[in-house]
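Feature request, filed as a ticket because there's no other form

It would be nice if the structure record came with a short human-readable summary line next to the tokens. Right now we just get the raw output. Example of a typical job, pasted below so the devs can see what we mean:
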Amino acid sequence: MAGVDVPLSVEPMEAESVDRLPEGSRWQYEPKWDGFRCIAFKDRERIELQSRNQKPLGRYFPDLVVALAGLPLDRFVLDGEILAFVRGQPTFELLQLRLHPAASRVAKLAAEHPATFMAFDLLAGENGRSVISRPLRERRPMLEELFEGIDPHLATIMLSPATTDHALALCWLEEIGLGLDGIVAKRLDLPYQPGDRAMRKFKLWKTVDCVVAGVYYKRPGQQIDSLLLGLYDDAGLLHYVGRLRVGRADPEMERRIRPLIGGKLAFTGRAPGGPSRWTGRERNPIPVKPKQVVEVSADHITDNHMRHGARLLRWREDKPPKRCTMDQIAAKLA
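Raw output as currently delivered:
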């Protein structure tokens, strides 16, 4: 890109999962937003939005292209997250709706729910020169200075909060709760490291008792790939809330689930299945009689859905399926 030192092929810096949020004066903490990772390039009239895998995103987020073009800054390269907010909470499902449809559909979605670009790192300043080799303790003030030229009330381009206060970072998790994906910790003394897991991410895990009401099979064959999990609402409808990946053959799981396979799909509310938004391939859920309860842990729940899958903690022989209710995951169905 002429006028900007950072190439379009740059990979975003990644994060390694940790069980404890690191402490100390060398760390900066930021919210871990639940959206699409994006590197935003601007060189005068040219705007590029690039995904984590160096795929162009501008087609799906024309509202952000217009917003970035309208900023009173000629050049920059920002690392950030594309988000969609509903009543102040990030909503990942709205972002997924932007993928693959016709341009007219994208335009309609953009008008109804404009996206937000949440910037959290700087790769090139307004002069177009790369600052990737600079330590974070220099990049962050430069990023904040760049945002001094941006209207702070602009909802489409925002600066992500950051702090060096460990206690405050943990408070963010408690205050924002289900709307936040976790906390990211970055070393203040390190340069930006494209493609490397140079950051740390810490997530809260929530335990939920769910009914197993379906499975996905692996291909080929009929080995179980995933358990499909459900919760009952106040009206007695069973809603699909996520899946638990099996990974490899599990004799105990086969013993418990295989005899229950068959019959009519038990999900009477939100159901699994349908074409994948990413591959377009159809996945057909296999019905399971809703008699087995599992206690699982999930690291992120939005829109009444376990976004990143769940981990099996134990089988619950002592809990009736009908007591596995939606109030465990707090949010109400729209």
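Something like this underneath would help us a lot:
The first strand starts at residue 14 and ends at 17.
The chain has a mean pLDDT of 88.
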